[in-house]
Protein backbone atom coordinates (compact mmCIF):
# COMPACT_ATOMS: atom_id res chain seq x y z
CA UNK A 1 0.00 0.00 0.00
CA UNK A 2 1.13 3.46 -0.65
CA UNK A 3 1.73 6.09 2.00
CA UNK A 4 -0.80 8.42 0.38
CA UNK A 5 -3.55 5.83 0.72
CA UNK A 6 -2.71 5.25 4.40
CA UNK A 7 -2.75 8.99 5.07
CA UNK A 8 -6.16 9.27 3.40
CA UNK A 9 -7.54 6.33 5.39
CA UNK A 10 -6.35 7.58 8.75
CA UNK A 11 -7.42 11.12 7.94
CA UNK A 12 -10.92 9.86 7.15
CA UNK A 13 -10.93 7.73 10.30
CA UNK A 14 -9.87 10.60 12.57
CA UNK A 15 -12.27 13.06 10.94
CA UNK A 16 -15.09 10.52 11.44
CA UNK A 17 -14.19 10.08 15.10
CA UNK A 18 -14.09 13.82 15.70
CA UNK A 19 -17.36 14.31 13.82
CA UNK A 20 -18.93 11.58 15.97
CA UNK A 21 -17.79 13.31 19.15
CA UNK A 22 -19.12 16.66 17.93
CA UNK A 23 -22.46 15.16 16.83
CA UNK A 24 -22.87 13.27 20.11
CA UNK A 25 -22.33 16.47 22.09
CA UNK A 26 -24.90 18.37 20.02
CA UNK A 27 -27.46 15.58 20.46
CA UNK A 28 -26.76 15.38 24.20
CA UNK A 29 -27.16 19.14 24.57
CA UNK A 30 -30.53 19.08 22.77
CA UNK A 31 -31.65 16.13 24.89
CA UNK A 32 -30.64 17.89 28.12
CA UNK A 33 -32.54 21.03 27.11
CA UNK A 34 -35.65 18.99 26.30
CA UNK A 35 -35.36 17.15 29.61
CA UNK A 36 -35.07 20.43 31.52
CA UNK A 37 -38.06 21.88 29.66
CA UNK A 38 -40.10 18.78 30.47
CA UNK A 39 -39.15 18.98 34.16
CA UNK A 40 -40.15 22.65 34.34
CA UNK A 41 -43.46 21.94 32.59
CA UNK A 42 -44.14 19.02 34.95
CA UNK A 43 -43.48 21.21 38.02
CA UNK A 44 -45.79 23.92 36.69
CA UNK A 45 -48.50 21.32 36.08
CA UNK A 46 -48.12 19.92 39.61
CA UNK A 47 -48.30 23.40 41.10
CA UNK A 48 -51.47 24.13 39.12
CA UNK A 49 -53.03 20.86 40.32
CA UNK A 50 -52.09 21.68 43.91
CA UNK A 51 -53.63 25.14 43.61
CA UNK A 52 -56.85 23.68 42.22
CA UNK A 53 -56.98 21.07 44.97
CA UNK A 54 -56.35 23.73 47.62
CA UNK A 55 -59.10 25.96 46.21
CA UNK A 56 -61.48 23.02 46.12
CA UNK A 57 -60.57 22.09 49.68
CA UNK A 58 -61.09 25.66 50.87
CA UNK A 59 -64.47 25.94 49.16
CA UNK A 60 -65.80 22.53 50.20
CA UNK A 61 -66.26 23.09 53.95
CA UNK A 62 -68.07 26.37 53.44
CA UNK A 63 -70.60 24.85 51.08
CA UNK A 64 -71.18 21.46 52.67
CA UNK A 65 -71.11 22.04 56.44
CA UNK A 66 -71.51 25.75 56.86
CA UNK A 67 -68.59 25.68 59.30
CA UNK A 68 -66.24 28.61 59.13
CA UNK A 69 -62.61 27.60 59.59
CA UNK A 70 -61.11 31.08 59.54
CA UNK A 71 -60.49 32.15 63.16
CA UNK A 72 -60.46 35.81 62.12
CA UNK A 73 -64.08 35.61 60.95
CA UNK A 74 -66.55 36.94 63.55
CA UNK A 75 -68.87 33.98 62.84
CA UNK A 76 -66.13 31.43 63.69
CA UNK A 77 -67.28 28.76 66.17
CA UNK A 78 -64.56 26.57 67.64
CA UNK A 79 -66.98 24.02 69.11
CA UNK A 80 -68.56 23.34 65.70
CA UNK A 81 -65.13 22.96 64.14
CA UNK A 82 -63.96 20.49 66.78
CA UNK A 83 -67.22 18.53 66.45
CA UNK A 84 -66.70 18.33 62.67
CA UNK A 85 -63.12 17.08 63.15
CA UNK A 86 -64.30 14.43 65.61
CA UNK A 87 -66.99 13.34 63.16
CA UNK A 88 -64.45 13.07 60.32
CA UNK A 89 -62.18 10.77 62.33
UniProtKB/TrEMBL annotation:
UniProt signal peptide = none
Key word Hydrolase present: no
- What would be one Gene Ontology cellular-component term for the protein? mitochondrial inner membrane
Q: How does it assemble?
A: F-type ATPases have 2 components, CF(1) - the catalytic core - and CF(0) - the membrane proton channel. CF(1) and CF(0) have multiple subunits.
Name of the protein: ATP synthase F(0) complex subunit e, mitochondrial
Question: Which BP terms from GO are recorded?
Answer: proton motive force-driven ATP synthesis
* Stored InterPro entries: ATP_synth_F0_esu_mt
Question: What is known about what this protein does?
Answer: Subunit e, of the mitochondrial membrane ATP synthase complex (F(1)F(0) ATP synthase or Complex V) that produces ATP from ADP in the presence of a proton gradient across the membrane which is generated by electron transport complexes of the respiratory chain. ATP synthase complex consist of a soluble F(1) head domain - the catalytic core - and a membrane F(1) domain - the membrane proton channel. These two domains are linked by a central stalk rotating inside the F(1) region and a stationary peripheral stalk.
What is the protein's major site of localization?
A: mitochondrion
Pfam family, any one: ATP-synt_E
UniProtKB keywords: ATP synthesis, CF(0), Hydrogen ion transport, Ion transport, Membrane, Mitochondrion, Mitochondrion inner membrane, Transport
Keyword Mitochondrion listed? The answer is: yes
Q: Which domain of life is it from?
A: Eukaryota
User: What family does the Swiss-Prot or TrEMBL record give for this protein?
Assistant: Belongs to the ATPase e subunit family.
- Give its localization: Mitochondrion inner membrane
An example molecular function term from Gene Ontology annotations? proton transmembrane transporter activity
